Amino acid sequence: MASKLLRAVVLGPPGSGKGTVCERIARSFGLQHLSSGQFLRESLGGGGAAQGLSQGGQDCFTAASLMTSTQTSTLSPICFPRTLGQAKALDGICELDLVISLNIPFETLKDRLSARWVHPASGRVYNMDFNPPHVQGVDDLTGEPLVQREEDRPEAVAARLRKYKDAAKPVMELYKSRGILHSFSGTETNKIWPYVYSLLSSRIPPVLPAEEH
C-alpha cells in the first residue's frame, strides 16, 4: 500500500547521504526503499554489470535507466534518477509526489568521498572519519578487504562532482517547474534529517519519531 501513499525521489551528488536519508525515510514512514545499485547487484548476481555498479561506472547510469522499466510497484523512496533521460523514463511509470534534493558544500563532499571505502560484494560503505570499520581495512560482516574506488580518490572527486552538477541541473529544473522539488542544505545528515522528516510528516503519518535514528 505504500506506493499509494507516496512516490518520492531523493537526489544528491555523490557522498551527499542519499542512502542514509532513504533508509531513515523507509524506517520512519514504513515505506519500501528501492536503491538502484542494491537492486541490480542482487538481480545480476555479482556479474559484470553489477561490478560496474560497485565501481560507480557508466553501467550505473545505464542500469538505473533500465530500472525505470522493470520496477513498477512501490517506488518510495528511490535513489535515482540521475539524468534527464532517466527522469523522463520514470514519468512513463508513475507521477511523483515529491522530490527531495540534498545540497552539500563541495568541500564537505570532497572530504567525505576521499575518506570512503567500500566492500565490493555487498556495496557496504565505510567512512574512515566518522563510520570506520571495526578492524581497519576489512568489512565488519565478512572480514573481506575493503577497497577505495578509483572515483573516490582525491584527484577524481572534483571531476565526479562537476559531472553530477551538469547532469543534474536539467533534472532539478524539471522537478522545480512542476512544484515538487524540495531542497535541503547543510553539511551533516543529522542536521538535514529533521527538515526532511517534517516535510514527509505533512504528507503521510510517520511510524517512528524523528529522533529514533
Automatic annotation (TrEMBL):
<dbReference type="Pfam" id="PF00406">
    <property type="entry name" value="ADK"/>
</dbReference>
<keyword id="KW-0547">Nucleotide-binding</keyword>
<keyword id="KW-0418">Kinase</keyword>
<dbReference type="GO" id="GO:0005524">
    <property type="term" value="F:ATP binding"/>
</dbReference>
<dbReference type="InterPro" id="IPR027417">
    <property type="entry name" value="P-loop_NTPase"/>
</dbReference>
<comment type="similarity">
    <text>Belongs to the adenylate kinase family.</text>
</comment>
<feature type="domain" description="Adenylate kinase active site lid">
    <location>
        <begin position="116"/>
        <end position="150"/>
    </location>
</feature>
<dbReference type="InterPro" id="IPR000850">
    <property type="entry name" value="Adenylat/UMP-CMP_kin"/>
</dbReference>
<dbReference type="InterPro" id="IPR007862">
    <property type="entry name" value="Adenylate_kinase_lid-dom"/>
</dbReference>
<protein>
    <submittedName>
        <fullName>KAD4 kinase</fullName>
    </submittedName>
</protein>
<dbReference type="GO" id="GO:0004017">
    <property type="term" value="F:AMP kinase activity"/>
</dbReference>
<keyword id="KW-0808">Transferase</keyword>
<dbReference type="Pfam" id="PF05191">
    <property type="entry name" value="ADK_lid"/>
</dbReference>
